[in-house]
Amino acid sequence: MLYEFNLVFKIEPVKTPPFRAVPITVCALLERYANGSLTPSRAIADVLERIDAVDRPEVWTLRISASDLLARARELDVLLGTHGRAIIERMPLFGVPFAVKDNIDVAGLPTTAACEPFAYVPGSTAFAVQRLLDAGAILIGKTNLDQFATGLVGTRSPYGAVRQVEFPERVSGGSSSGSAVAVAAGCVAFSLGTDTAGSGRVPAGFNELVGLKPSLGLVSKRGVMPACRSLDTVSVFTHDVADAWHTLRQIACFDPLDSFSRKASPMGLTRGTPRLGVPDTLEFFGDKAAQDAFATTLADLSRRLAITPVPVDFAPLNDVSALLYDGPWVAERRAALGAFFDTHRDAIDPVVAKVIGRADDFTAVDAFNGQYELAALKRRADELFESIDILIVPTTPTHPLIADVQANPIELNSQLGLYTNFVNLLDLCALSVPCQRRADGLPAGITLIAPAGADHRLAVLGARIQAAFFESAVTDIQYEPLPFAEPALTLAVVGAHLRGQPLNGQLLEAGARFVEATRTTPDYQLFALAGTTPPKPGLVRTNVATGAAIAVELWALPVRLFGEFVAKIGPPLGIGTVQLADGRSVNGFICEPVALGHPDARDITAFGGWLAYLESHSTLKPIN
Q1: Whether residue 199 lies in the annotated active site
Q2: 68, 199, 255, 407: which could join 220 in a potential S-S bond, CB 3.0 to 4.6 Å?
Q3: In what order do the strands lie in the sheet with 60-64?
C-alpha cells in the first residue's frame, strides 16, 4: 500500500477568519449511495479535493495515496452497480471515508503515537478498524495526537499543534486532536480516537462535534497502543449522534483475544425523561463566556425539552480525577512505554516526558493505596447514580489559546480535564454533544455521563438534545440498541407493546430490540378487551374456521431482564407460546379465556391486527 508520510514538524497558529466546513455525514452518504445520486469514486474524489482545500497538514501523520483510495472506491462502484441498495444493507458503512488516530494499528502502516523513534509497522489491523473496513468504510489516513495520547490540548506533537477548525489560534483539544479536526473540517465522515481521561470528548467539544466514549470493554482495544491499558477505550467522532451510534454498532463486539473486552450487558432505556443531575459546584476558571454558554444551554433544555437537572455532590468525582495524574495511575503510562522511556527520553516531548516521569515518584504501596481510595470514592459515585440516571456537565470549563498553553502547558491542560478525568476510573460511559455556542462564537457543548451499559440511554437523550440546537440532527435511534452479546429470547407482541403504542416503553426499558413485523398462523382470534387502561387486545388460539392470521411484532429481549418485564404484565394477559405463519413457535402475549366472556369484549379478528382496529376508530388512534 502506498501512503504519504507527514514530515511537518512545526505548525504555528495563524489567525484567519473563522472557517466553516461543509460536514460529511454517514447517514447522508449512505442515502445518496442508495438512491444513485453518488458513487464511492465521486465521494473519494470530493474528499481528496476537500483535504487539499482545507490545507491542514498538521491533522495527519499519514495519508493513504490517492491512487490506492480511488482504486478501492472503484471496487465499491462495481459492487454498488451490481447489487444496488442490497450492498449497503450488507455493508453498513459502505463507501464512508474515515480516519484513525495514530496510536491505532493498521496493517502495513506505521504506528507512531506521534513519536518517530517509537514507530513500528504492525502486521495486523486493530480489531475495531478491521470491523469498519469489513463494513465497507474507506480509510483515508492516520491522524495526529498529543504524543503517546498524553494531553488534552493537541499541541504536544512533533507533527505540529493541531489548530481548532474555525479559530486557528485556539487549541483543538487532545489527545485525539487530528481525528476531531479531520471530521470537523469535512475531510471524513467519522473518525476513531481513544479516550483515557477525556481525549474523545474535549476535542469534540472544542470543534462542535459529537464525541462518543463507550463503556469500557465494549469496543476491543486489541491493536491500540495503550496510554493506560486498564482505562483506555476507542472513541468515535462524528457530526451527529445518529452517525456516532451507527458507527459504534459496527465496532461494539466482544473480542476474546482482548483481555479487557467485556460482553455487553446494556441497560434499557428509561421510561420518559431520565433523571438528570448537574454538579452542585461548577468551575470555569474565570471564563465567563463558557459559564454563560452552559447556563444558557441548561435554560434552553428546560424550555425546549422539559429537562431540568437537579444539583448533585460533585466532590467525590473531582477527588477521583486527582488520582489519574496526581496519583499512581500515571505509572500505567510509564508501563506502556517500557524500556523506550529510559532509552529515548530525549526523543519524547518535554511536557509528555515530565508527566510520565512522575511515575518514578510512586511505589507499589502507593498503587495499592490508590486502589483503596478509588474503591471508597466509587462507592460514593454509585450512591450518586442511585438518585439520577444521567449526569450532565460542561464538556470543558474553558477554551485556551495555543500560545497560552505553550506558555503554561501543564496547568491549562489539567483545567480541561475537570469534567472528564474521572469517567473511566469510575467505569462510566459518556457522550459529548454540541449545544449553545459561546458569546465569542467558539463552540461549546455538554457531556452526558452514566454508569457502564447506559450507552444507548445517552445516545437517545443526546440525539434529542442535539436536535434542539441543530435542525438537521437525526433523532430516531431508540429502536437501535447495541447487538446482544448475551442470551436473548424472541417475544411476539400484539397490542399496547407495539412500536408507537403506550406500553412499548416497557420493552425499551428492558433493552429489547425490534426484530421484524410478521403474522401468526391463521387460527387465532383477537379481542378488544373491556376495561383495560391503556386499551389492550387479547390474543387466543382457536381454529382456522373462526380465526385469522394476526399481525404481530417480534422483539428480542435479554433473558436476564425477562422476569422483570413479565412482572409488569397484569391479568388477563400473560406469556405463552405463539405460532407464526412461517412455522416458528415463539414466546408471546396470550389472553386468559375468561376475559373474552365479558359483555364489552369485542371480537376484532376481522381487522387482522390491533393497529388496523385502532385506525378504524377515530377515538383510538395509534399513539406516535
Answers
A1: yes
A2: 255
A3: 3-5, 60-64, 138-143, 97-101, 190-195, 233-238, 210-213, 428-434, 445-451, 390-394, 276-279, 310-312
